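ping. complex inputs:
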Amino acid sequence: MSELIYLDHAATTAARPEVVDAMLPYFTEKFGNPSSIYGIAAESKKAVQHARDVIAGSLGANSEDIYFTAGGSEADNWALKAAVDAYKDKGKHIITSAIEHHAVLHTCEYLEKNGVEVTYVGVDADGIINLDELEQAIRPDTILISVMAANNEIGTIQPISEIGAIAKRHGVLFHTDAVQAYGQIPLQVDEMNIDMLSASGHKLNGPKGIGFLYIRKGLKLRSFIHGGAQERRRRAGTENVPGIVGFGKAVEIAFATLEERMEKETLLRDYLISHIIERIPYCRLNGHKIKRLPNNVNISFQFVEGESLLIMLDMKGICASSGSACTSGSLDPSHVLLAIGLPHEIAHGSLRLTLGEENTYEQMDYVVDQIVEIVGKLRAMSPLYEDFMKKNRK
Amino acid sequence: MYTEKVMDHFQHPRNMGEIENPSGVGTVGNAKCGDIMRIYFDIDENQIIRDVKFKTFGCGAAVATSSMATELVKGKSIYEALEVTNKAVMEALDGLPPVKVHCSLLAEEAIHAALWDYAQKHHITIDGLKKPKADIGEEVEEEY
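pong. complex structure:
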């Protein structure tokens, strides 16, 4: 197999041809600034409004509650920092989970340095947030709960409706980082009592550099980027019209095919998981078996290190990722894998494979064969495996 | 990210394996940080390293530095082996990314640990050889 097998859709996806086609005119002949008065500007404005409507529709939200940003990280930063600022009279306490994306965690650390108190609620061995702990963490001065809809590394889907209900019962705002979940599973802001939701375009075959923050009407959140009056005076800067148009197109297609895609990817996911686990001893699935994103596989192989695994997979034309320290640029493995209770050495040997709709069963068979061979090769090289086998023989 | 030499040594590690009843063996690093190296020496009566093998749990750079370190000490005397520094290992690999420099330190330390074990077993003192640190992972982190 000489083709490239891309199994890192949680990192980013390719923009669909329909998305690129929809975007192109807005770079050239339809280049007008939506804020201007003449005809071509009006066309840009209309295109932005259409995308906003499509996105709002996918969440059961009002169009005027969708605010375009430069991506998921900006949306997360905005939600947390602006909520803290807007509700400082009520208090300075926020609650989040131990397994959030760094866009939320590092924002929380920043806020802590500025006098905000943050409670990091733990997760169980499958990565599901402890709801009792969450509810008990709420104090009179708690202003915000921020819990991701689904985890980017291990794919575990959080009980968003339950968290929304808890937040509502206590009169606390609820933000969810849905960057990884949006377009992969259904999310409804009213039913789930979501007050703010962050999403990104490039995770669902849209363009990079575009995202949005949903802000429920009535919230006092102020601007994060100051300047012009764009986005109802809440997010200054000339709209990224091609990006917004592409994002809208990607959302339209993603939601039209959502159920069918979920079903197909879940089967492919479980096929890949079961074949790896059957053929390789001393490995484990990370994350919940069922409550996980349809496209996420995360497996730890004992006695091997993730980066070595990734380089060898790359040489076989397979793109994947890992939670090992060496891929994070620090000496610590993924905070998510540690939070679900993995010992460091097992967290170092994790492999994340995230599927897309173009992936096939034939590819999975090839990938499993390659992983079997590579893990065998790395274990033969591993002093940990040598020690383990010697101990077992005794 | 890696030089061609690093990739070559990672893909085709030299001297990978173990030696039965080695003259000296040293293991350094820790699984917590994701790198463990073990080096085995077969040293003859003239204190020449007749054979050397390694096993490594770690990233591409960890494997490549172990492989290169074994190449640099093979056939050398124990005193020549003692002079092989992490810089020499890095240079021989045409360099390492800054975050991977600790792998070369680990390789140097693994050689020292194996020499220390040899010295202990044979009740000799090797001038200039210090007792290896049991775990260098944690403190090396501060160096970059």
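Residues 136-144 of chain B have pLDDT under 50 and may be disordered.
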